[in-house]
Amino acid sequence: ESKQRKWEKPVVSKPQLQPQNNTPKDFAGTVVEIVNAGTVVVRVSQGKAGLVDVSCTFSSVRVPRAARRGNANNEQKNMNEERKADERLANAYAALAQEFLRSTLIGKKVRCVWDYTLPPYTPPGSNKELPGRSHYSVYFNNNNMGLELVKKGLAYAAVHQKSDDP
Q1: pLDDT band at residue 74, thresholds of 50, 70 and 90?
Q2: For 70, which DSSP code?
Q3: 112 Cβ partners below 8 Å, 6+ apart?
Q4: Neighbours of 87 (CB within 10 A)
Q5: I need a labelling partner for 138 at 20 to 30 A (CA). Which of 13, 32, 45, 125 fits?
Q6: How high is the pLDDT of residue 23?
Q7: What is the mean pLDDT of the chain?
């Protein structure tokens, strides 16, 4: 029996109540990398373990995503002009947001406060499970950097469902 055009109610799992990889809930460190407009890598000193890099995804913020460069020729042939323009605009905003974070945070000390961890999930149409992510509020000079992105118009505040509350 074909599964085409048959929809199932997605299984929504609740966020975890602990950060991943035994990372403390509140820590300070130095930003060493801007992965994208919504994720930074913070280098933290963890005693005997030495320096550890922690990937911190901003909580409750939706940032523009840069288009994938993979199979661009085939995809662009099938895209209409309006979608191409939307993708170019999203790429521009993603680059602006990433550059804002780079110029503001690289090499600076930040404080990260864990908010929630989303569980691993498998995207529709894929058999590869993606790992869960810990989401943090990242503060620099007492300013939440996710909120700063929203204030500058480089991101959107995420709307959470009532079922997302832990």
Answers
A1: low
A2: T
A3: 26, 27, 28, 29, 42, 54, 56, 136, 137, 138, 139
A4: 16
A5: 13
A6: 67
A7: 80
CB 53 within 8 A of CB 41: yes
Question: Quick check: 38 and 63 in contact, CB under 8 A?
Answer: yes
**What six digits make up the tokens of 143?**
């300013």
Long-range own/partner contacts, residues 158-161 (CB < 8 A, 24 or more apart): 158/60, 158/61, 158/62, 160/60
**Residue 122 to residue 128: CA distance in whole angstroms:** 6
CA 72: distance to chain centroid?
23
Note if the pTM is more than 0.90: no
- 57 strand-pairing partners: 39, 135
